[in-house]
Amino acid sequence: MSSPLRWGILATGGIAVTFTKDLLKDPSTRGASDVKHTVTAAASSSSASRANEFLKEVGAPSEAKGYGSYAELVKDPNVDIVYVATPHSHHFQNAMLCLEAKKHVLCEKAFTTNAAQAKLLVDTAKKNNLFLMEAVWIRFFPICQELRKMASDGKIGDIRRVFADLSLGVDVESKFGTKHRMTNMDLAGGAMLDLGIYPITWVFQFLYHIQSPQHQKPPKVASSITKYAPTGADEMTSMIFTFPATNAQGIATTNFRVSYDPDDKNTAGPAIRIQGTKGEIQVYGPAYRPTHYRIIPAVDKDTGKDKAGFEFQDVTRDIPGHGMFWEADECFRCLKDKKLESDGMSWSESIVIMDAMDEVRKQNSLVYPEKIESTKYPLEDF
Ligand SMILES: NC(=O)C1=CN([C@@H]2O[C@H](COP(=O)(O)OP(=O)(O)OC[C@H]3O[C@@H](n4cnc5c(N)ncnc54)[C@H](OP(=O)(O)O)[C@@H]3O)[C@@H](O)[C@H]2O)C=CC1
Ligand SMILES: O=C1OC[C@@H](O)[C@H](O)[C@H]1O
């Protein structure tokens, strides 16, 4: 495909601005010469003027159209793919709108509110021969690709355990209150769907994704949730995933009240530890935007002799922007190769993860309002 991929942006909130600015960066600044992106339209559910304001703010081409409804956006013949950037409560309805209008979709995380909705999106994409991907952007960071390759090449031996955390350390009452999308159950608020998806992704990258197909079995789940009493959203969630083919364990935690990095200086240590029989990979920086890793070789505990066969390494990888362009580049490449799904974030893996999060919610009686858990499409008055 030599012409640019033409993006439509559905919603104009915080992440839509960040993503679109990244998308419009010159690909050569990240060393990519095979991709081209443009923005041809954006829509805001509030007004066309908000959409036009957004297009100006992100520096979109002057011909890009601003719409006052999502329904108009998906009818635009100059849009190839839609980036869905609404709260997770709305992903199912919004992504269905796009797929039914025969548009390819990149849908923000968490994919949907439950696995049943995710399965329906996948069925609809398949039926309509469309590309669909959950926007778990870190999967496409070169640093993550490098670490997955290193681990699958056996550098740290058999991986037995992964610890991963993404916790904010905020005063929930003053920072979010009850209406913010992070705590509002009507918007599928809560730590797990918003933040927990990252530690879960780290666990899955190493204990599921890089495993051979016969080892890619859904994990057994044990979990505990503490709720934010005023709304019932989860504010502290800890999960243990045991993968049946290897018996390896992934411990994923997320928490609004304490931080993975309380002093913003990494004094607390790595946010992620990938532990193998020959050594350990430690990842620093927030789980959603890692920039730095260490590899620690293991020694034999009895003899003190090296077990690893490699030296300690401390590596920093700069990100030439926010880092969201890499997932957009993946969309371009998949479409160029006529692939409906990405190997980096496959449909089946998104569904296995949604299933695991459903199980965490079931174990802790965490239920969202019926309307946003519904698999009916379209839902009136949504
Ligand atoms: N990948 C990443 O790094 C990040 C991803 N996210 C994900 O992106 C999604 C959106 O998050 P974020 O941009 O921070 O959220 P914002 O609240 O900033 O924006 C959400 C936008 O969705 C639209 N919207 C439609 N219906 C509603 C509704 N009922 N309530 C609120 N907004 C609505 C609005 O746009 P309009 O009025 O134009 O229609 C709104 O501006 C979430 O799913 C989140 O998980 C968020 C932050 C970082
Ligand atoms: O995806 C995300 O990553 C960054 C966080 O600050 C944000 O809440 C979350 O949605």
From TrEMBL:
The keyword Ribonucleoprotein does not apply. It catalyses: D-xylose + NADP(+) = D-xylono-1,5-lactone + NADPH + H(+). SUPFAM superfamilies: Glyceraldehyde-3-phosphate dehydrogenase-like, C-terminal domain (SSF55347), NAD(P)-binding Rossmann-fold domains (SSF51735). Pfam families: GFO_IDH_MocA, GFO_IDH_MocA_C3. One of its GO terms (molecular function) is nucleotide binding. Belongs to the Gfo/Idh/MocA family. This is D-xylose 1-dehydrogenase (NADP(+), D-xylono-1,5-lactone-forming). It comes from Viridothelium virens (Speckled blister lichen).
